[in-house]
Amino acid sequence: MSESLTGLIDRWTTRLARSVAVKTSRRGFLGRIGVVVAGASTLPLLPIERAQAEAPGATDDPTTCEYWRYCAIDGYLCSCCGGSDHSCPPGTEMSQITWIGTCRNPADGQNYVISYNDCCGKSACLRCGCNRNDGDTPVYMPTKANDIMWCLGTKTQSYNCSVARIVGTANAPG
Amino acid sequence: MSRYKPLPNSARPWIAATSVRTLFPVLLAACLTATAHAAPTSLPVESSHIEKLDAPSAHWVFVIDLVGHAARLFDGDDGRMLGMVATTPSTMALEWTPDRSELLFAAAYYTRHTYGDRTDAVVSYDVPTLSPIGETLLPGGPPKLANGYPIRAYSGIFDGGRFMAVYNFSPATSLSIIDTRTRTHLADIATVGCGLVFPVNADTALQLCGDGTVQRIQLATDGKTAAMKRSVRLFDPGTDPFMDKAARDGTAWWFITFTGSLVRVDGVTLQADAAWPVQQESERSGWRPGGRMPIALHRKQQQLFILMHEGGVDTHKQDGSEVWVFDVATKKRTEKIILKSAASSIDISQDDDPLLFAVNADRSLDVYSANSGKYLRSIAGVGIAPVIVQSFNPGY
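Structure tokens for the assembled complex are given below, as produced in the milestone run.
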């Protein structure tokens, strides 16, 4: 795992722990995760490496499901809804808790860590719906389950669309 | 002075050519003639009213619309829509009392539609009138109702209909327990590492857990606490997990794995029977179960219905083109129903002449005879995004 990815996970888990501590009961399971996420042994519990896939027929068009960084996305593409592949549409709020995938960019051959964030606060955009299930798990294994609505830690749970932000490279250390 | 000049008579030829004195008798005669001819066939004056439902049929079925935020009720025998209830984006499944007189479902309401103050509740609807008759408020604080793509096991009503459980994901997992008779919230029970709810009897339910076990939750008499016990590891969550969809058989549940192994788990003893594959040897590399609700059981006939498609890894949500029917006693496939259109969700009525319901990608509900596999009819436009179908059976 690259140093940048480790740093990313540290920042993510810190944010997650803070968010969960504020938003949920301490009896809850992620409340407990929040206590221990600093330990590397808990990494399998985190929503990382959700997929390492390159879609057949991958495109460079961020308004299509086949766009390379959408390898683990589930929802309406913000690129079609007033946002972009990494920004939310006006008037929405980005989810604080999310899941992360690893997708290969065919243009440079590198693997990138992708954070899939839901944009929240408005009703569903209903444009460019995509569901790619690479590595998807049942909802009782939530860290890799894309059927879950991830507008958590936001002012409202109303789901609008989803983005796929590059947050680092995931190339094996050389 | 008017800015407009009156039209010359030449521009109004019919007025110029006739006089009122001439026209009046003609118009009067025409009206009288028309009245005399229409009178015998004129429609009666109507009084309006609001329809009420008859006693539920064995073939009534609900379809949950994810985007239209509604649960619509249809008669599978003739395809008529009977009515609907308005749901919310947080409504994942319907429950009903054993006598089918009352519907219940979890719901979240914002004061400003998509923002503002939020109220979470289990709302109760009278079935004959499809009108709200009460609600059970869930505790305030940060929202926690599990939300996403509807899954049947996001809530469950226990046998007898007193207790109902609603699954929460905040992302801490828990169950909210309510008393449907007093419409009171009894408890929130943390379910660390496990999710969903599969009722077993009047006080017990199962959950699926991320470590490959099944958890039994037994409520105390007052419903405020629960005794929990995990099974031994029943599946490998890393390679072939149980789907989060299952079919009930009394105090047991039939679970199916991503690759197509069926496992019956007794909800009281937590014992699992030996798993068996739905595919024959030659089919294992090409066919898998899939969809949004791919499994149903006819309890009396002991027949399992599995929605199948041709596909490989990660196709567990792909629509199915066939329904395979299995005799539980022999574990043999007795029939393949080739669907008219690929379906995402199936369910079955529990009577002696059962109907198989299948929601397809064209937003229609296809109806088949479950005994013969014969296609009977399609009900078009059952929702904007119809996702799961629930046959309105007594009990599960």
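The helical segments of chain B are 13-17, 20-38. The radius of gyration of chain B is 28 Å. Further analysis is deferred to the final report.
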